[in-house]
Amino acid sequence: MLNQILTNHSAFLNTRHASFVRKAICSVEQVFAFQFCQAAVALTFAVFISDFKRKAGMVPLISEKWTRVLKLLLLVPLFVYAYALLTLNGILTVDLFGFVLTLLGTGLVVKAKVDLARHHTWTGFCLDAPQLVSRGIYSYIRHPLYAGVYLFVSGLTLTVALHTSLYLVVPAGLALTYILSFLAVSASRETRKLEKKLGREFTEYKKQVHFCLPLRKYAKQEQP
């Protein structure tokens, strides 16, 4: 059964590669340039999400044992992604789309962390006495850090699925399932905590600003 699954996956990869062969970039120089750009984006992303410092007044939103699991599992898709990039021997059109997703995701993460400044905490934690941050990217997106991670993961998934074997796709997929589920739960609990702590101020902000889409800009309401 396992051999059949692996055979089917290999056939899928071959079909995908054949369908894009005329649009693939195959020169060594272009592949190297693509690898370098993707590696630079991935390194920037990894640096900006890797804030492990425990800040004063920081409280957990989720049991810390599950947060430790998250930190360990983060390494799995990143290593598989690095392997996919290092062994790349051609670039498909869809790879360029994947690069755009990782670039946009990284840009959101960097901008969000800069705008949060001292208010930033590691995923799974929240300040016990939070303040509403509604400047910069937060005036357009309520959870730009999470949105950035989702975008980056989408681009990463395209590269991993098209350029690695099922032996690597499965563990990376399982790790990503846990990571994205953790983020969803964390975002939900953070929202409830902010509603409780900040009251009407956050409720009004939540009404105007979407979770992850920049649909409109936040306009602070004057208090009567």
Provide an overview of this structure:
A two-stranded antiparallel ribbon has the order 1-2. The protein has a single domain, classed as Up-down Bundle (Four Helix Bundle (Hemerythrin (Met), subunit A)), CATH 1.20.120. About 3% of the residues have low confidence. The protein contains eight helices and two strands, in the order H-H-E-H-H-H-E-H-H-H. With 224 residues, it is mainly alpha-helical. It starts with a helix and ends in a 16-residue tail after the last helix.
Second-tier CATH architecture: Up-down Bundle
Return the CATH topology: Four Helix Bundle (Hemerythrin (Met), subunit A)
**Fraction of residues in H or I helices:** 55-70%
How many strands, which pairing sense, and closed or not: the largest β-sheet?
A: 2 strands, antiparallel
Structural class: mainly alpha
Order of helices and strands: HHEHHHEHHH
In total, how many domains does the architecture comprise? 1
- Distance from first to last alpha carbon: 68 Å
Uncertain stretches of 5 or more adjacent residues: 16-22
Broad shape: globular
- Strand segment tally: 2
Can you give keywords for this protein?
224 residues, mainly alpha, Four Helix Bundle (Hemerythrin (Met), subunit A), two-stranded antiparallel ribbon, 3% strand, globular
